[in-house]
Here is the input.
Amino acid sequence: MDANGLRFWLLGDARHFPAVQHTVWDRSCRVLRLASERTLSPALSQADAFAVAQNALENTPRAIDALENVASWDAASSTVLAKSYLPDLAPVLPLEDTPTDLCNGYDGVLYAVLPGRIRMHDLRGRWADTTVALAGFSPWRMTPLPEGGAWVMERNTGRLARLSGRPLRSETPLPQDYDARVFRPTPENCCPPQLQLVAPPGLRAGETPVALCASGQGAQDKFAVLSWLDGDGSVGLRSWVASQSRLDKPLQLVGANYAYAFTWLSANVIAVRVPGRRDAPAFDLSAADINGNVMPLGDVYPLSDAAQEAPFANGIAQPPQYPSGDRSAEPLYALSLNNLARNGEASNFASTAAGLAAWQIDSNDTTTVWHRLYAEAAIPAHTGFVVWLAASNDLKPPPITDLTAWHAHGFGRDIATLDAAMLAPQVPTAAWEPQASELPGHPGLLGGDLLPGTRGLFSVLVQNSRQRVRKLVGRYLWVRVVMHGDGRSTPDIAALRAWGSRFSYVDQYLPRIYRESLFGDAATAPGQRLAQIEKMHAAAFDVGGPLSSTLRARLMLEQVKPGPVANVTVEQSGNAWLILDGSNAWRVVRETVADSSGSTTVLGIYSPQSSPADFTARLLGNFEGMLTQLEDRVAAAHLFSDPGSVPEENLDWLASWIGIAFDPVLPAERRREWLRAAPDLARWHGTRNGLRLALDVATGGGVRSGEIVVVENFRLRRILATLLGVDLSDQNDPLLPGLAQSGNSIVGDTLFVGDYERAELLAFFNASVATDSENAAVISFDERLANRAVVLVHNEVAPQDFALIRRIAQLESPAHVEVTVSAATWPFLVGIASLVGVDTYLSTPRQPQPVRADVSTLGMGDFVIVDALLDPRLSGTPGSAPIALPVADLGPDFTTPFGKSFTLDGSASHAAPGHAIDEYRWRQLPPEDV
Here is the structure.
């Protein structure tokens, strides 16, 4: 609420625009902008496209690993062959049947889909090949899952199954190898490989599933099925709804008829293979309109000349790869070129099958006069947008075609040349404001630097330019945004704010003589009345376009003189029209007037002119718009003393009020938190609590989360403690001060109590020690612990914060206490006398890493991991398939008498995998070489 008591309503999120056409809400930048899209023209006829797609579906997809090694099926040798940077092809897996799919999983398993079963081949050689099947289910295509396993789809029916589990390692002892008294789990493998059907796919009649794919985008993993929806090849994509274990309703990919494969480019963007196209069209699923149609993105992903009409390579390589040449695959990259829609719309309402879907702007008052519209936007040259506003007292927007109910408000320097609506007389145009937001102390939602006339805050007085009194009155406000661009640039709208009800300086401050005197029909008239003509001319006006000679002659009789280029715009068929003639304009409306016979219907001719009082009110609105913001800033002056709202550049100024000087490396948010905690920091300064609070604020919650622990040294006494697995060779470990040769019983290097340590140990049990040397030892022991503290910094703290922690500890610690800052090497120590919160800090689980030379320690968490590569020659996997050599086979040996002819048959010979025999060459060897 501003200084005048006005409220505002905000449109600034995707849900605020339920209807979009050729526009999209960019979630990363949080702006409404023109969509990146283009129109796909068919590359082939419908029959040819169907034939190419069917042939592509019969091809066995290639598999690919993280190093872009490609595995493909070789029918000649009945073997899966791998192509890498090494010369020649390497055999990976011989198969007895032709696979319908090859899939390289994230778990290092090569899956081969065979008739009625799936073959699992471990690329690391941990277990022997295993076959998985499910009765009544015929696997056809599959896609890997990041957590291991895969989705599997059945052809034609589209039934889905999940493949999970893995066999036991080959070196795992068998149950009979254990003594009978040893407890063993039953079954031995609790997660064996298995296929499990999920809910029915719910496809509609005539729908044909053709592809499936799961993304590997971390927390945003998604899975979807591509299908042909009907006989003309229209393509739909059904996403998996995990919470309901079903496929969602299809989103139709416009222009991608008979697409036969797809892959994920990001969390919401896919690329598809369309028959005959030399690129892979991309689609943003989040940009689907209210009817579920998705336009193709303007991004172009070209394919090489050697690209094959076949599904994408199935595996874990990023970016996605498509098959190229005989055995290879190529990455999918986008051209660096914007291709944006030139026009688009978005509105806060939409008509759906279930009724009206709207983000309501409801003032709860039928007398609301909508006051001002603000837009936080970036409007480059040759772009702009028009905000159409309509007000009603019913929860129903007026028809879009009714131009008398909708009122244009232009934004952008070039909008007059981009939208024909701006040619209407006296259409309001927004002005640029030299601040980020009209809200006092608010940084704005757009972000970035302000640029006069191009980027920042724009404002316009809400007006009904078709009336003599130009107020827009009604309870509900309906908003349509029509955006324009040049195909390369787009306006970006971060927020629209509508304010109401109007605070009029005329009504509040001027004498009554200046107030509006027109009401009712006189106020809603389209201007100053000039003349009237017969209603029979309505049909001629409805034709629109250039003004006919008949109409021009009739208007001339009423002293209305349009020029030769006058043009008619139909605002409401049969009821309202606009005549434009350069800078001149006239409005024509159907109306009923009284005459001697009672009443009659005529066409009234009006000059679009407002009342004098309305002109005065709008003129003073210029001053009101500026002065109200100044009043708001004065009223909100307290925000400049609030750490949460003070501008970032004033934080040091505010801190100087209470004598605080920030550390230079503290970011803005931590400086704000420091100011909020200033009373407690001052109250507890020089105490342990004060040091903990200062460190917690400076590190963004490091003390609260346990990453930083402030502990006094006397708490580190471990009497009769047993520490398991501690490396005592580190003399400087902050958790073990003076204990490397102490009286504690430590499992490790010092499982004894020495003479000197015995005196220190007795100090805790016997107040009277016999000798002076023992007393001196006790005093020395106490001196090493008294008035000392240590700040333990666990390894989860960012390295750049470590120096900051040292400075904060020096400034905030008590003067009589010696504080040291040390990195804690052990996040969790198992001990009888554990210090809860100090040495029992639970860090995040350590992720397995491959062994690193001169870094890894045996048994300390690093593993010897064989790379899961398709080419066994690269990974050195034990038991890799031997490299097949060419074979020359002339059949069985035989003897032929001298002088008799004979035939040598080499048809049983075969070349190495990936090669073919072009010709046979025969040579007779000497007898000793035979």
Remarks:
- The chain is about 15% helix and 25% strand.
